[in-house]
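User: Please check token order:
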Amino acid sequence: MATIYLIRHGQASFGSDNYDQLSPLGQLQARRTGEYLARAGISFDAVYSGDLSRQRETCELACSQLGGEIPHTVDARFNEIRNDEQVEKLAPIVAAENPAIAQLLQRGLSSSKDYQKVIDAVFNYWVRNDCSAFGIQSWEEYSGLVQDALRDVMRSQGGGKTLGIFTSGGTIATAVAQVLGLDGRHTYAFYEPIFNCSVTQLFYSGSRVSLSYFNDRSFLQLLGQEYEENLVSYR
């Protein structure tokens, strides 16, 4: 069977003027991920990423540890869920129904934990309701793009390949839920626990695809012990 590795980007720069860039830790995580792949004997026939800086940079840093030129395709369908526009448009509606979310919004979202609680509430509202009137990307459009992108990779690459897709937590969660035959209401359960630079493995043959393992970060723990580095992070 052919193999796809879904790899989340390294830690981004939460709280900075530009979130969409790797933090120093994120850059180190990406390089260590590439080192793990090399030491495990995993080589890619081709790699893909979304067009977000944190995704492309993670891909480039990881692949720099593998040696040789690896074809890299940038496909915006692998971009992250548009959390910012959802928070802007939907958080006030969710807050009107949920006093706890209203309190978090009132004190600001400078804490990553507070931000994640709001994302949880907003995401689940988004997938359960028709939000087209708010002028934002719908769940149906987003999830359809993820599904089409994965199918296009499988179709264009064919059998016997080992492929890497460097993307984000929401995209990985959406793809995994789809592979398991689950709808949007179950997707957040896969979204929240995804670690930076974790690896999820899919097998495919023709149009059939199955999940081998999900959200593995054990290699970061092992390399962290080896180099005396703290490499594990969620956000």
